[in-house]
Fold:
Amino acid sequence: MTDLALGVRRAAWGVRALAVVLGAVLVALAAQVSIPLPGTPVPMTLQPMAVLLVGGLLGARLGALSMILYLTMGAAGLPVFTPTVPLLGFARLLGPTGGYLLAYPIAAWAVGRFADPGRQPGENPSGAWVPNNKPEVGRFSPAASPARRDWRRGRSCWETC
Structure:
């Protein structure tokens, strides 16, 4: 029984490691599709879409780990970054596109965290303010705002309006 469980665990670890590597490769391939914009050293690429896709598909931890692997590959000198900026290796992380690149693990983690199928509707793990999810009003409607409280009675507008 223990061997079976360890064998399954090892297989799952291998699949996860392969998914992390494939996520980094997907972002590296998306970086090669770039359109230079006049007047700015930052080109328009498919990287942001690929980062969000990897985060959503792999989840928070593996998505962020995949982006850290991507940044590590680029810092080591592999040609994974967009070829329009003439910096190589670690210098690219400190150049004009460095802020975008360093935000990739955070973005992948955030998308993976909020796309988690295990979350319950309305659950907000980050503690950030999100309005009520009332279907008749809409998610980000001002009428759903907690600021619209009837301060005299301590009740919300939904109870008094």
Summary: The chain has two domains: 2-122, 129-161. Residues 124 and 137 are 19 Å apart (CA to CA). Strands lie at 34-35, 44-45, 149-150, 155-156. The helical segments are 2-31, 47-58, 60-75, 91-94, 98-114, 157-160.
